[in-house]
């Protein structure tokens, strides 16, 4: 995973940059330049790849962020925005010649507006903290990634995160109403607000999922929903993953849209059960967790239909939660599946591709064949209802060649997703992990057009370079360099 070569001219003025950044921020200790202290920022959740940043800075105000970005733009210094660092695609991987801009101090809830069913928060507020702030009053925030106790809403927007309830309630993009953002030029802009729809181009939709390439988010307005009247979860076990995958498609095909529908295979079931004793059956090859919410009579009706569909697909176990404690226990295993799998393998890499639901049986079967081909185990834990796969490839980085074999295995899984009509990512983003696979899904012209959009926000490509795009182009090459009064800006840049 190659990153852009460090700019030696920038590295040569590191001391000057540190001095100026300390002038900008009120707390001089918020500028970190000690090598040992910078270790805390050397990677994100994709910890197989590490790189110390040149400098890290932790601003406290929007004004400080604006001045930092303006200064870095003038000095030709790249900037990598970072939230909690839970990205699983290397989206927050630092640059050796870049400033890492940490947003951990932006962690305040600014407003709770029940009349308009929304909240205004800073980007460093954790996903779970949003729900915790309103649950006593009967509300919650719907998107709930497995890392919700740690991941922040700013990072959720950067990657367009989902979670177990995105099947019914949508991804982050469907639950964000507005943002405040600072551009690389230091301009503070607002998109959307408390209103449901905004006029003009859907720039809010463009920013959501933009992986820190277009601007730095400093404020977020999110929807909050009323807690459902009743909630129930079902555990359904199958003799094979293919049968479980077939059941998923048939449930949706019957017109039933559960609040969530998750799937785990044998490796994940046993690891999770040993980890937190969720009460999972251990004599099945695959397990579905299907949650229904709404009026009690509706839940009872759909629960019976799901049982019938599951039985026709070969289910051998079906159990419905009898109370809230049991429902939470069902989900505890699923939420803890990633750390639980970490107990059965020295290392694992979590993939993230999305496929049409109808292709689940085929893809799961093919992944089993690839597992044998590469000689690496794979544990499947994923959002089955919307076809968002999260295969965990188990490997040992201390064994020569295993990391490389894991990467090849993962690339083949993602290529398979595209081959069957899916996409490279569902919620983890492209980052560096999938960057070099973008050509599998997009043509060169597709990628150039996407980069032209980046040029509109960040013409010098200073924000998070080396991510998403496999081949970098200067804006001049893409034909989008603005000419004012006959003078080209940045005359020192080579023309193409």
From TrEMBL:
Q: Where is the FAD-binding PCMH-type domain?
A: 49-227
- State the needed cofactors, names only: FAD
What PROSITE patterns does this protein's entry cite?
FAD_PCMH (PS51387)
Cross-referenced PANTHER family: GLYCOLATE OXIDASE SUBUNIT GLCD
Name the source's superkingdom: Bacteria
Keywords assigned by UniProt? FAD, Flavoprotein, Oxidoreductase
In Swiss-Prot or TrEMBL terms, this protein is called FAD-binding protein
Question: Which Pfam families does the record cross-reference, listed alphabetically?
Answer: FAD-oxidase_C, FAD_binding_4
